[in-house]
Amino acid sequence: NAGVTQTPKFQVLKTGQSMTLQCAQDMNHEYMSWYRQDPGMGLRLIHYSVGAGITDQGEVPNGYNVSRSTTEDFPLRLLSAAPSQTSVYFCASSPRGMVGNTIYFGEGSWLTVV
Amino acid sequence: AQKITQTQPGMFVQEKEAVTLDCTYDTSDPSYGLFWYKQPSSGEMIFLIYQGSYDQQNATEGRYSLNFQKARKSANLVISASQLGDSAMYFCAMREGARSGNTPLVFGKGTRLSVIA
Question: Rounded CA gap, A49 and A68, in Å?
Answer without folding.
Answer: 7
